[in-house]
Design goal:
about 190 residues; alpha+beta; Jelly Rolls; four-stranded antiparallel sheet
Length: about 190
Amino acid sequence: MEKIHRYFAAMGFTGDALQEVADSFQLQLFKKNELVVTEGKTSRYIGFVDSGIFQYYVVKDGIEITSYVSVPDTWLASVMSFVSGKPSLENIRALTEGGIFMISKENLRRLVNTVPPFKEFYIALLEQSICGIDESRHDLIVLTADERYAKLLAKQPHLLQYIPLQHLAAMLGITPRHLSRIRNNIR
């Protein structure tokens, strides 16, 4: 619990507000390949990744397509399902053993209504998520595969050490073979 406490302290939370926020999260452990979110079921939790790697994916024509990966010290959520209360369109599963500090929608709503700085934090988190989704969509339409890979290297090079290449390729909208060619051209 100390990690979630430190995270919110670094966000400017102090005193009773810090304790109330930190106490609202519960560490949940996941085994490799265990689902955190299941397509077709409503996601009632969001979380802060303590450890492990978590894959967001859909299955299309019997093939898994990775859309995103959460690594330690990032937030994890099936945003559309969590916010709207509708069934998830994606799965999220543990690629490795790991832990997530989870908060239920009910506890999150309580914090939004009783801890003003948390409301500001939550709005900023949602805005950041929306901007990230919009930027990813834009990049898939406008940038070439080489440009998307270069952007990933420039903005999030740490992901390369966490994410298996087949998942990285899917996130970039290319095949693993194409990613290998791009990587070889850079060397």
